[in-house]
Amino acid sequence: MSQFKFFQSSKLIKTFWPLYMGFFLVGSEMYIISPLLEVISSDLSVSISASAQLITSYVIIQAILGPFISTLYNRLGPRFMITIGIVIFSIGNILSALTYDYWLVICSRGIAGLGVAFFGPSTWVWISHRIEENLRGKAIAFGMASFALGQVLGVPIGAYSAAFLSWQSVLAILGIAAMLLLPSIWKRIPSHSSSAIEIASENINLENNIIKTLLSSWQDKHLRWNYIITFLFHSASLGAYSFLAIYLSKNFFIHDKYIGFIGILSGVGTFLGSLTIGFISERLFVKNKKRGIMFLVYCSLGGMIAVPLAFQMSYLILSVFFILTWFLFSGSFDSCQQHSVISLSKDNIPTNLSWNTSILYAASGVGVLIMSIKPESPNFIAVMAFVMMFFSSLSALYLYIKIGSIYEK
Prior knowledge:
It comes from Xenorhabdus vietnamensis. It is a multi-pass membrane protein. This is Major facilitator superfamily (MFS) profile domain-containing protein. It is found in: Cell membrane. By secondary structure, the chain is mostly helical. The chain folds into two domains: about 15-195, MFS general substrate transporter like domains (Growth Hormone, Chain: A), CATH 1.20.1250; about 215-409, MFS general substrate transporter like domains (Growth Hormone, Chain: A, Up-down Bundle). The chain is built from 20 helices and no strands. It starts with a helix and ends in a 7-residue tail after the last helix.
């Protein structure tokens, strides 16, 4: 049995490796600039806080335009959406490497984010419709793990590259690496995907009205609850994470150059959490589909314990342990949630996934806003995280009860 599962995993990786590599590059992109901000601010003659907006511009485009772009999936098909996403992502990075003008770099970073808005949701949908249902959870989890691995390695890659390469060279290499994936991606995705045709035929009326397509995600009460769960969980998780460095440096006197280790630790936890879901997905999502939703409850309860405790420990080793545990639950949550959105979607899956991503980014902003009321108070941050995780677990439990009839075998 274990050999058979290993064969299944190997087959998934062999089939989807160019797309997984795409997720790896997208994940790296989010953090590879972080260690380079000081150099970038010097080269562009701006403050470090201004140079940090290069990260913001990359993310905010995905959050705002993602749902609108996703409505094109049924009309244009997966091959076009995924490959054009890679092309735009590559162009954005290469343009960033060719200028020393701050605002042109900001715009170029936004272009790279636009590419991700095309690539991300379309890839999730195509993968989920390309394989058998019993392997869907594992395939999605491997994609999430690839993204997390990119986040893990993004910080050290950026840091070590700074010793040998300029920040422009780092971005150019990212763009070229993405472009090199194009032939393999193009070869794997047929020009007329049968799954895309099926979905399009079901949604032809909605395609004629983009607003209706966008709002259809919110008309499904089960998806609404799913979005609420995402919002509450990541308001707690990402909001608290934004102030974790302040807590660690203040309470354990950690030098700034070692704070980056926390980013690696969180990425490792997310990576391991995603892989865990991948290897138990058959039991979660196929043998008992309701259990997949119930796992969102477990992840929220785990976060409700781990996040506050990470801010309350007197010993660094204990705080590190709970940070790792925190992101194990976070990685597991994200993989389960991706699968949950796909499973609950009756139509317009790309749009539904894009809304989930946009809500995640919005949750991060709201979480930071709430916790910035007392940013240097670990007790306040712990309490806020506990409350939001508690309501996330309650919402997930409510959803689990409500969809019982849908997930009956």
